[in-house]
Amino acid sequence: MKDMRVVLVVSADPSDLFFANQLARRLPAAAVVVENQSASAPLGPRLRRAAGRLLRPWKLPGYWRGQRIVSEHVRKSGAIDREGFGEDGYRLEIPQGCRLVEVTGKGVLNSAGTVQRVRQLDPDLLLLCGCSILKNDLLSVPRLGTLNLHGGLAQRYRGVWTTLWAVVNREPEYVGATVHFVSPGIDDGDIVHQGRPELEPEDNPESLYVKVVRLGVEMMASAVAGVAAGEVRCYPLEQRGDLYLSAMVTPAVLAKAWQATDDGVVREYLADRERRDAAVLPLMRGVFPPQGR
Fold it and tell me: What angle, rounded to 10 degrees, do the helices at 251-262 and 205-229 form?
């Protein structure tokens, strides 16, 4: 393990900074690459959108309702993230000898400049969490491949916001994480580990996500150890789950997720866990022990 050189590639979100901090301390990390995905939109398009709303005043009440829902989601999820990730989610403190590479802009991870900077780091493995989709030029750099932490069970949920969608669809039994090698597709590469956190009756969409990320960190550390020892076992994804995209998460979807937890969607699952798990467990590959065991 000590001769293994890994480069972590993450976004600036709290969950991803937590991932980077935790693993940079445990693994022989050569660098952490942080992608800024929140650059402001140009002023012109923002003004045109604002003008469009003013020209359609009958839509303004719905717009403001949506804004209130988003603000409430940000408030609640922010407090949960702060408690669940601690300072590791808000301040990157990488160990001595580990470089920090910060990049900003759409598509910048796949730019020739970023590819060259990562190539100079001479990584054996790239470890991803929350970053943009990587193209072949960057994926070809690490000697042993690229591992991704996906916050869902890929046989059912691929893409983004997958924990939230499992709650919206009233399927908390599918809340989980997948560590897999990256392929040209989205969340469909060979699986190394899959795991599900322990659920509690009071869990909500964000507390579930925190549990998924914390479990995923342990799974990634185990996967890297397996690769370093030459003992990693991979499993093809035999059933590709539905693909969820960022644009699909509307204020109405956010409201539905929080309402589902208020209505007891997790309690319903826990009361019928054995029967509902019977549909999930046979799908999982490289099963990782849940946190706490």
Answer: 100
Domain that holds residue 177: 6-283
| Strand blocks (E) in the chain | 6-11, 29-36, 99-104, 125-129, 146-150, 157-159, 177-181, 191-195, 242-244
Instruction: Give every CB contact of residue 119 below 8 A, 6+ residues apart in sequence.
Output: 141
pLDDT digits (tens, 9 = 90+) for 151-176: 999 999 999 999 999 999 999 999 99
For the chain, how long is the longest CA-to-CA vector? 63
Dist. CA 223–CA 212, nearest whole Å: 16
CATH number for position 198: 3.40.50.12230
Write down the residue that tokens 């960022």 correspond to: 246
- Would you say residue 293 lies in a domain? no
Question: Using one digit for the tens of pLDDT, what is the confidence trace for 208-245?
Answer: 999 999 999 999 999 999 999 999 999 999 999 999 99
What DSSP string describes 87-148? GGGT---PPTT-EEEEEESTTGGGSHHHHHHHHHT--SEEEEES-PPPPHHHHTSSSS-EEE
Is residue 63 situated within a structural domain?
A: yes
Tally of domains in the chain: 1
Would residue 156 count as lying in a domain? yes
Neighbour count for residue 12 (Cβ, 10 Å): 18
Phi then psi for 101, rounded to 5 degrees?
-120, 115
- Cβ atoms of residues 132 and 36 within 8 Å: no
0.85 exceeded by the pTM?
yes
Q: Is residue 72 part of a domain?
A: yes
Asked whether 66 and 250 are in contact (CB, 8 A), the reply is yes
Radius of gyration of the chain (CA): 20
